[in-house]
Amino acid sequence: MYAMQYEITLPADYDMGIIHDRVAGRGHLTDGYEGLGFKAYLVRERGIDGSPVNQYAPFYLWGDTGGMNRFLWGGGGFGGIVGDFGRPSVHHWTGAAFRPGPARGSVPRAASRLREALPAGADPREPVARALERWEERSAAPGVHATVLAVDPRHWEIVHLTLWAEPAAGDDPDRYALLHLSAPHWDELPVGSRWP
Fold this sequence. Notes:
Order of helices and strands: EEHEEEHHEEHEEEE
Strand content: 35-45%
CATH topology: Alpha-Beta Plaits
Helix content: 10-25%
Structural class: alpha+beta
Distance between the termini: 15 Å
CATH class: Alpha Beta
Mean pLDDT: 93
């Protein structure tokens, strides 16, 4: 599994209705995308739920790199973002764990994200193991639709993304509204952690 997210930060006075309309009109285009476990169309709006910015920040979980590569540079969809907003940096992480939660039968309406840097020079085993324990606890929490744990071994960063049936619970600092969920290969995503 591979997790991916890009963030398009927009002016403070930007009409976020434009992004809502964009997702309403184009979100279905990834509903059948080959290799895509899910794409969560996420937005943050300045002044809502503690957000300091207006931001469009879709999060993807890919089953393998083939679909991700096609999307980014194979003419499979990223060109629309580049054409409308310029080319954003794309954060990507190796998928470490994925699990649907107790609210998996509902339509998710929100998401939350926690990004944490591993201490410089630290052996990654202990911080990743601690993150996995927190992920296990989170995956069983009421209102959780699904949760992902992923690691960037270049910058040594852990990301924990949770999809929620209702507004995000917990204390993750980044909170999003989820405008649309494309999940063409959701049932093919491996459940649990990706190492013994």
